[in-house]
Each structure stands twice: as structure tokens, then as C-alpha cells.
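Q: Protein A?
A:
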Amino acid sequence: MACLAATLGLVIFSGIMDLSAANKDPCDLYALVGQNLTLPFVFEGLGVHELRWTHNTKIIFYGQQGRVSHGKAEDISKTGSLSLKNLQFSSAGIYQADVVNPNRTLAKTWNGSLCVLDKVAKPQLTYICVKTSDVILNCNVANPQGLTFSWTLFMDDKTLISETKQTLSISLAQQKVVRSFTCSVANKVSKEKSDTVRPTCESPPPPPLFCLKSQTVLAVLAGGAGLILLLLVIIITLCCRYRRIRTQMRRRDQEGLSLNKLEPKISPVYETMHQTEDAPTVSQTSLPKDCCENVTQPEAQTENKPAQLSADAEGQRPSPVPKPRTKGPKTPNI
């Protein structure tokens, strides 16, 4: 039972030690890149003593009774402190100083952990309006890990101690006067402050008349433009086709007119001649038979001469089809 209690106590003590070690700052000293630093070590009466400095167990200085066998004498002060110049990230680590008596016993020792940090960049302060009266401030900076943030009211020059986060939410409605803000970022060796920002949030714009997304509106406009272009192409095609058909019809009409001009025309004299020949003569129709019988032969011959002359005249006219000359009827002698 006693062994169990002792074991349990040892476990609890180890846990407490680990927790305290986790909360402890791993660096005893902080320095900026390019900075000079003197390690804090003091020992009076180094004349006959041996002094040794190590960096991560590597000897960087060794001197005894005023003689220096490793390192530079000007880097060591009269009290034994070490001066580091133009620090770089490789200069970080554990430094240890040991002073040994002439009888080879340890007179004094010191060790410390050095961390070399870069200078913080200047932050950029931005804000976002959540509503017309609420605003969220954001302190933007590169590599925010390990940095400390602070906020300051510019008008009152008052630091908001309770606000140590990268963002700050405020309500403009609760403030009588709109104030300006600044944010600061800092590490163990440097600190930077942002420009002053005065947040103002306007009322939101009225909702759009059409609850459509911009992509939908663009798609509708593109479709309408494509439809109009298609209609124009169809109209132009129909007009060209109609014009071609009209041109072909006009050419056909012109060809028909030219053919009609080339065909021979029938003479009106020819038509009149046929009508005269087909029509019965006056002597054949109007004179009665008794009258013709009473006329003597010489008178009949005399009357037939004009008819024969007219027939001869008609025979002399040009005609496409020649016909034999007709003689008048002979009157029998009684």
C-alpha cells in the first residue's frame, strides 16, 4: 500500500513538473536579427582563473591568466561577459560560461537560452460591415503566429486592454461619435502600428427588381442576341433567294419577247384577199336568174370584163399561196 502511494505521488509530481515546463518560456534571452547583444555574466577576479564559453556545447572562447587560445579577447569584458555581434538565426541556442579555479574546481557557472527573432511587419487594418451598425476590424499581418495584438482608440488614445485578438467586433450604434482605430502587433523584440482607420457603414442598397443572378441575366442576354442574329441570317437568305427567282423570271420574260420579235408576221393583205375570194360576188348573188337569162351575150361579156380585170389585179398582188384565176359565168345564148 505504501509503495502504491509513493508511486502515485511520483507520477503526480512528474505531471506537475511537465506542466510547469510546458508553460515556461523556452527562451531566456531574445534578440533581433542583426542586433548586438552582451550575455549577462559577472565574475570578479578573472586574473588567475580559467574562463570558457560554449554555444550548444561547442567552445567559442577559452582563456587562462590573460592568454586566449580560442576566440577573441575583445569579445570578453573584465567581468567575463561575452559580446555577440550581428546576430543571425544561427546564433540562437544555449550559451554557457564556466569559471575554473587554479586547483581545477568549478568557481562559477551560467547558462541561458537565446532566441533570435525577425522584426515584425507593419499591419494593415481593414474592416467589414456586417450590418449598418456593426463592424468587424481585422489586423492583417504576415506570419501572425506568436505575435501579440493590441487595439487603440485614436480619439481617446486609449488601449483596449481586454482585446488581444487579431479581430475586433464593435457596434457603431452604441457610440455617440464614430471613432478611429489602430492596431499594433509585437513580438519580444519589435513592435509595429497600423494606420488609423475610421469605419463607416452605409445603409444597404435596395433589393434588385428581378431576383436573378448575374449569370442568369448574362445567359438570357446571350440567348436573345443569338436568336436575333439567327433571324437576321434567315431574313437575308430569303431576300437573296427571292431576288434570284425574280431575276430568273425577268430573264425568261426577256427571252420570250425576243422570240416573238423573230417570228414572221402575217400580212393583212393576205387575210383580206382570202376573205374576198371566199365571199360571193355581186353578180352571183344579187342578180336574179331571169335577168341573167334575158341579157345578151355581148352585154354579159361586157359586164364580165370588169370582174376579170379585178381578178387580174388581185392575181398580180403578192400572196403566199398562188391560186388560178377564175372566170365569170357564161350566159347561154337564147
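Q: Protein B?
A:
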Amino acid sequence: MESIMYKIKVALLFTVLCSFFAISSETLEKESINLKQNSALQKTLPDDFQSLIVLRKKMLINQSASEDELAKLTEERRYLPSSDAEVESRVKVIQQRVDKDKKDIDDLEAIDNKNDDQLVLLNQLKSYVQEDEYQISRMREERAKAISLDAKIQLLKQHREELFNSIAAIEQKIANLLNLEEERNKFRTLVSVAFCILVAIVIIGFYVIALKKESIAESIFAGEKGIQFVTIFLIVIAIILFGIMGVLESKELSALLGGLSGYILGRVSGAGRDKEATSQPS
């Protein structure tokens, strides 16, 4: 007896474990499918916040409308027959009553000289048959309407699921863009700090060298070369920082750097020609 009870307990435990693993695997499979759908949807979404926010708002409005329509149809469906078997069982009972009433009507109509009671009964039976046939017709119409509502409810549920996945994909896309923007801001901050340190090192080094050697300091501060060097260096750093911060676009950066490079090369070539001209004997 104890061995039988032990086997029953083991069998029950095994059944429970199998059911648990089946439910878990089904849940994981659904989550995996949802993740794949979300990743596919994210690829089709725009990359700017404004469009995503507008799209999310539209999706939420559609979701609210779908929920209202689904609640309305579900409430209407509650009062309709739930299955064909239920309708047919009720129709069968009513049809049997109709057949019996029709048989009684035929029997009464076969009588030649009907008395008043028979005439009243005949009219009542005809009225009963008419009401029962109308009830059968109405029940079948309600069942057809229930089938139509079931199809609409199923479509609305699928649409609601699609909207839910779309909203989740949009929110995930917004979160990814926010994370990306945060990373960009960190990068901009680090680069800005690095360039500030570089500018400070260059300027400090420039003045340290100039102060250590009087000849260099005299040549730098007496002429315009030193000031030009510092100014051009600061302008280049400022242009690069503006580009990193997004203040200037690629076309503007190209124009500024190209113009600055042309100016520097023009100054160098002009100075070289002047030097050659002065070195030639008159």
C-alpha cells in the first residue's frame, strides 16, 4: 500500500513539474518572439525624438480607442449564446414543442364542425407555433451575431497586441536615443576638457619658452608672429570645439578650416617670396 502511494506521489510530482516547464517554455518563447518583433519594429522607426513622441501619442490614442471598442463588444457579447451546442439544444427543445403543436393543429383542422373551445385552442396553438418559430429564428440570428462579434473581438485583441508591441518598440527606441545622447554628451565633455588642457599646455609652454630665452621673447613680442601663432591656434581649437558640440555643421567646418588653411599657406608663401627677394643682390 505504501509503495502504491509513493508511486502516486511521484507521478503527481512529475506531472506538476512537466506542466511547470511547459508553461515556462511557452512564456519564454512568447517573450523571445516579442523581443524579435520589437527589434524589427525599431529598425523601421525614425531617429529623432519629435517624430517618435508624435508617433507614440498616436499609438496611445489608437490603443485607447481599441480598448473602448473591445470593452463595448465584449459587453455586447455577454448576452449572446456562447456556443452552437447551447443554441442547438435549446432549438431542439423548442422544435419538439413546435412539432407537437403543429400535429395538434392538424388534428384540430381535420375536425369539420369545431366548437368554440376548439377554435380558441386552434388559434392559441397557431400563435404558440409562430412565437416558437420566431424564437428559433432569433436564437440562430443571435448565434450568427455572436460568431461575428467573436471574430471582431479576436481582431481587436490582435490589433491591441500589435499596438502594445509598437508602443514598447517606440519607448525602447526613445530610451536608446536618450542613452546615445547621454554618451554623446559625455564624449563632448571629455573632448572639451582635453582640448582645454591642450590649449593651456600650449599657451603656457609658449610663454615658458619665450621667458627662458630673451632672444625668442624679443622676436615673438616685437613682431607679429607670436600673436598670429597663438591666435590661429585658438581659432582652430575653437572651430574644432564648435564642431564637436554640434554648433557648426560639416559644411561650415570645411569652409572655416579651408579658409584658415589658405590664409596660413598664403602668409607662408608670401613670407618666402619676400625673403628670396631681399636675399637677391640688387
